């Protein structure tokens, strides 16, 4: 065991990122990303929630503008499921779908 450490084993292993460190880095990135997100007022948030519910009930296409760290992302599709307890919803377009957070939306409107 001593030879392995002396032969570069310790040095080689020190270059590997531990899972705990990787998780901490990701958490820090997420916290920074969330702190830069614009804060929406209550009325705007209610409008977004109403638009998502309308898309779900009436099966109409909704266009969303999502906050991104570098730039805003625009997605368009149909809301097929809403989880109010976790504030997430499923957006589907063509044969693809994605779970998104309501808190990531900057703007939502019906096409």
UniProtKB/TrEMBL annotation:
A matching Pfam family: YolD
* Protein name, UniProt field: YolD-like family protein
Source taxonomy:
Bacteria, Bacillati, Bacillota, Bacilli, Bacillales
